Amino acid sequence: MTGAEQLAVLATGFGAGVLTATVGVATLLSFPVLLALGLPPVTANVSNTVGLTPAGISGSFGYRAELAEHPAVSRRVVVTCSLGSVVGAALLLGLPSSVFEQVAPWLILGTCLLVGAQPRISAWVRRRATGPAPEPRHALSPLTTGLATLVGVYGGYFGAGSGVMMLAVLGFGTDLDLRVLNATKTLAVLAGNGVAAVIYVFVADLDWPVVALLAAGSLVGGYVGAHVGRRLPTGLLRSLIVVAGVLGAISLLT
């Protein structure tokens, strides 16, 4: 890589780190950059996963107060995403890289719409409910746990928009505040990327200079993103998540 390309990858890592801890579409920024550098798709994918893992670490550290509010949910998300990521990593190494790339834009678009519509849909469901008001859902049901595991599988395989997908799953499956959901989403990305990264280090073809630059940038970006995400108003944060996800899905389709 030239000096300019190295700076571009470092800046991409920082931007992707911020996105990891805010709107959850980091791969939609970093993956195309790695492809533009000439990396083969699978090499770019695995190098991107390993390089962005530090963003999940620093972002989760930045959100530590939010994660401590519902530790049982945090633990469940870590377990489900870790297990799912193992399956996703195996699929990536055993299947053509184009399989999920073809459906990823539509998955992202669908979940973006769900994230945007979730407050109104949840309010409508509550209005239609009969009997005493239900207790707030502060734990993951078996259905939500299963869907979170599937998001972990997707994250281990391709990962683009997996944070948005996790937000949609947790948003419909729990009654947690969006700031807590965003923190939990960041932890989920860390769990999925971390497990997949360990596998890729031993069995995949990585571009180590790219990994190092992404990691350095994303470590700082994740921590900055956590502070930004905590301070954004809920409505604005939700809108940014939807807009970023839609733009990212469109970029994958073109």
Plain-language structure description:
The chain is mostly helical. It has one domain. The chain is built from eleven helices and no strands. Helix 1 (3-21) packs parallel to helix 10 (208-231), helix 3 (41-62) runs parallel beside helix 10 (208-231) and helix 6 (98-128) runs antiparallel to helix 11. The model has no long low-confidence stretch (mean pLDDT 83). This is Probable membrane transporter protein. It is a multi-pass membrane protein. InterPro entries: TM_pro_TauE-like (IPR002781), TSUP (IPR052017). It is found in: Cell membrane. The chain crosses the membrane at residues 7-34, 46-65, 77-97, 146-172, 184-203, 210-229, 235-253.
Properties at a glance:
254 residues; 0% strand
* SSE order, one letter for each helix or strand: HHHHHHHHHHH
Number of strands: 0
Distance between the termini: 27 Å
Estimated structural class: mainly alpha
Describe the structure concisely for a colleague:
Keywords: Cell membrane, Membrane, Transmembrane, Transmembrane helix, Transport. The chain is 82% helix and 0% strand. The longest helix is centred in the middle third of the chain and has 31 residues.
Can you lay out the helices and strands and say which pair or pack?
Elements: H1 3-21, H2 27-36, H3 41-62, H4 64-67, H5 71-94, H6 98-128, H7 142-157, H8 162-173, H9 178-203, H10 208-231, H11 234-253
